[in-house]
Amino acid sequence: MAPKGISDKGSQNGVETHTCVSSLLMLFIPLVVVQCVPFNAGTPTLASLPRSVPSLPSYLTLMRLSPSLPVAPLRLLSGFLLLLLLGVSWTATAQTARFSQVTTTHKKKKVGKMLGADISFLPQLEARGITFSDKGQPKDAVQILKDHGFNYIRLRLFHNPAADSGYSPGKGFCDLAHTQQMAKRIKAAGLKFLLDFHYSDTWADPQKQFKPAAWQDLHGAQLEQAVHDYTRDVLLALQAQGTTPDMVQVGNEINHGMIWPDGDIHSADSVAHLDTLAGLLRAGVAAVRETAPKSLVMMHIALGGQNEQSVYWLDNMIRRGVTFDVIGQSYYPQWHRTIPDLRHNLTDLAKRYPQDVVVVEYSAKKREVNDVAFTLPNKKGLGTFIWEPLNTWEQIFDKEGKANELLPIYDEVSKKYKVK
Q1: What number is the average pLDDT over the span 222-228?
Q2: In which region does residue 341 sit, left (phi positive, over 0), alpha (psi from -120 to 50) or beta (all else)?
Q3: What is d(CA 357, CA 258) in angstroms, rounded to the nearest whole number?
Q4: SS3 of 169, please?
Q5: Is the pLDDT of residue 51 over 60?
Q6: What number of other Cβ atoms are within 10 A of residue 305's Cβ?
Q7: Angle 307-319/339-352 helices, nearest 10 degrees?
Q8: Distance from the CA of 222 to the CA of which of 25, 129, 142, 378 falls in 20 to 30 A?
Q9: Which residue from 242, 239, 228 is spatially nearest to 288, judged by alpha carbons?
Q10: Element (H, E) at 358
């Protein structure tokens, strides 16, 4: 049985759209029969059509068409309706394929090992006057992480965090401008860069995925276009300053959907929204493929130890034409079960799907999580990204910014798994 909010219905590349059109065509089968079967003066009505059409009586009953209806005008009407339906079908196909063409024509990219950290809080910490040091030597936090084996930095991006209801009212931390500044620091340090689109003005996670205020009145194709254009414009801005992300997350912890209520797949009517979610994801992925074709695309779900739910989510999105290079998982023991559960899930995903696998958020059980992430079958385990280690949960710096005893763990991990 599928978990709540997840359905096994659907098919790849917008076949759901054509199901509706096909159903409409079935309604007009009697008229198609009228259009195609030859008749003469001896067959002026439906009842007079040749007996060589064995299913006609049942169609007449289904459509409640009177056998006494004249054939000639119905032939004209059926021709008009067929042309109309062909036009509807073509329009639906074109709309569904807008982003599918881009997302389904890419080659698998060569990917290296990742030992990463999300340090999106850094500008806020520095604005409070906090400085960082390692063994008594003041240094840029980015450089300290590099010195201890990290090779990737993750940054979250909100749509308009400066809004009154946003993540950082009036200040705009984690907006595009702050992200551009941080991206320059990351690239200057010689590290790789993962950009995490939240598609919200504030935090997006399994419990909330608020639609940006600027998109409140957008739905359907208009909302998909907004996702595409926003993603494209952000990537172009980063590209213009020479800081194109090496990897892009299209959504953050989206196992319950994103951009609610449109893409909410956790509510009672979630089955209908699976198609909507896939359309939004295809739009975002298409923008990445078009604008930054060398960047990896990640789908990020928060189901580290939940294998059944992970498989249902991935199967549903893949079936609907969503393409990506990396499966990203969050793992927090209080929500995502045990380390053996994590290993079971990631091992199955690595065997089941062609994509590589990353634990893109975690904090506790550092050695154990990295041991799982780097030892998956078929060399599919790329590594990890610790979440906000500068100041959150099991952090690797104290409140004054001094590196603590947990930081050297990453020297061990980087050496053990030969992270470069």
Answers
A1: 98
A2: alpha
A3: 21
A4: coil
A5: no
A6: 22
A7: 30
A8: 25
A9: 228
A10: strand 356-361
CATH 3.50.30.10 fits domain 114-416: no
Residue 268 pLDDT grade (very low, low, confident, very high; cuts 50, 70, 90): low
Beta carbons within 8 Å of 286's beta carbon, 6+ residues apart: 98, 99, 100, 102, 103, 228
d(CA 238, CA 156) in angstroms, rounded, equals 14
Main-chain phi, psi angles of 302, to 5 degrees: -105, 70
The ranges assigned to domains in the chain are 12-103, 114-416
Are the beta carbons of 46 and 61 closer than 8 angstroms? no
Six token digits for residue 253? 């912890």
Helical spans, DSSP H, in 292-373: 307-319, 333-336, 339-352, 366-373
CB count in 10 Å sphere of residue 86: 12
Count Cβ atoms within 10 A of the Cβ of residue 211 and give its class: 0-12 exposed, 13-18 middle, 19 or more buried: buried
What span, in angstroms and rounded, lies between the C-alpha atoms of 316 and 271? 10
pLDDT in tens, 295-347: 999 999 999 999 999 999 999 999 999 999 999 999 999 999 999 999 999 99
Name residues whose C-beta falls within 8 Å of residue 411's C-beta, 6 or more positions apart in sequence.
148, 149
How many angstroms from the chain centroid is the CA of residue 231?
A: 12
**Catalytic residue flag (residue 361):** yes
Neighbours of 223 (CB within 10 A): 20
Q: Kindly report, residue by residue over 181-204, the tens digit of the pLDDT.
A: 999 999 999 999 999 999 999 999
Residue 96: in which H helix or E strand, if any? helix 71-103
How many C-beta neighbours within 10 Å does residue 340 have?
Answer: 11
- In this predicted structure, what is the pLDDT of residue 259? 98
Which of 361, 368, 388, 405 is labelled catalytic?
361
